[in-house]
Structures are given as structure tokens and as C-alpha cells.
Amino acid sequence: MSTALITGASSGIGKELANALAERGYELILVARRKERLAALAKELTSTHKTTVTVYAMDLSTPGSSAALEKKVLADGHSVDVLVNNAGFGTNGRVADENRARVAEEIQLNIGTLVDLTIAFLPGMVKRKSGAVVNIASTASYQPVPGLAVYAATKAFVRSFSEAVWGEVPTGVKVFAVSPGATATEFFDVAGTKPAGNLATPADVARVILQQLDSEKPAPSTIVGWQNRIMARVSRIVPVKAAIAVAGSLFLPKK
Q1: Residue 56 annotated as catalytic
Q2: Per the residue annotation, which of 35, 151, 194, 241 is the catalytic one?
Q3: pTM above 0.85, yes or no
Q4: Which GO terms describe its cellular component (predicted)?
């Protein structure tokens, strides 16, 4: 039986994907900060799908947390067949006004932890010639976003990193990024901003992830939703000043 490790699993996309993979018979390792939510989700999944669920309540935005998670996983005898790097958050504000400690946590979680967990569990997949690493990027990765400058830059890193590693792994191992647009999760509450346009659902995102996992050779990165795919293409065609101006009109806080 395959085992999937999902970070940021207590709500939103992570929770939806946990349900979907449990339905497929995966054993699950769920990681998030909120112990009570993780415990409730584990109880629900084991009851509904009769699968095994291990939970680790951890804050992955701190340096060294990914190594600590790897140690727990290995000590408990788990082998990770599918790694879903879903945990992440954004901060909405002008860079000159940002909280440096909070931004450091944002970069650590969105980039540092994601890369380290990939490096931790990818070698086993390469050795077995099977497995998958799923990295959650964002449509914000396709252009600079004033007001979400750090977040958009971290997601651009995630997408580029994933696409590069896609080109490194042998047949049988899948590495790809998935870029949702605005999704009905807690992201905007945490970031302190409001979404622009219609919201996708976590189920929409989980459906795309499953389609990629089912593909023999998934694309290096995929955008969720046809409207978002058009917007991403347009952002690459228009002058960068125009793309920045449009993004800033949506997310840059007023002085």
C-alpha cells in the first residue's frame, strides 16, 4: 500500500487531497500546526475509508523543522511514496512595511521546507523508480505582484524548482508543480487581503492533482482552471510594466 505525506493538511487543499487519496486506499501522513484539526481529520478518514493515518502537529516555518519531520517519519517506519508540499502562506503589504520575522517564516515554509523535504524523500523514490513529488505553486508565480511581492516570488521559485527537478528524475518518478488561482481556503484571511474574481474550490485543485498523478508523464507544471491559464499566458506577452500595474491594482494596499 502506498503512503502519501501531505503538509498543510488540516484545511483547504491539503484536507481535500487527503480525503481523495484516502478514498484511493493510500495510507496517510498528515502534517500541520493545528493538532486538534489534524486529530479530527484523522478520525474522520480512518472511519470513512478504513485507512491508516499518522499525524504530526508541527510548525514547518521554523528552520530545522523539515529535518525533524523526516526523523519522525523514518523513526516510525514510514516510506513516503507521494510527497505533497502544500503548506505555505502569504503576507499582503508593501515590502518596506513588512514584518521581517514573519517574512522569514514565509520564505522558510514556502521555499526552504519544500526544498528540504523534496531532497529528503526524493532519493528513495528514485531508488525505487516510483513515487511522486507534488509542489503547490500559484498563478502568482507568473508575474510580479506588488502587495504580495514575497509570496509571488516564493511561488515563482517553487514552479521553477519543480520544473527543473522534473527534468532530472528517471521514468517512474513524477515531480510537478500545480498552480491554483484564487481558491476558497484560509489563504486570504491569513494574508490579510481579499481575492480578485471568482474562487475555485479545494476540490477543483485536488482533481487536477489527481489527474497529474494518474498521468504516465505529467507536465512539469499545471495551472488550475482555463481562465487562469489564459491569464498566465497573457502575463507573459504584455509588457512587464503593464503586468505589474495590473497586479498592483488588485493587491497593493492603499497608503
Answers
A1: no
A2: 151
A3: yes
A4: membrane
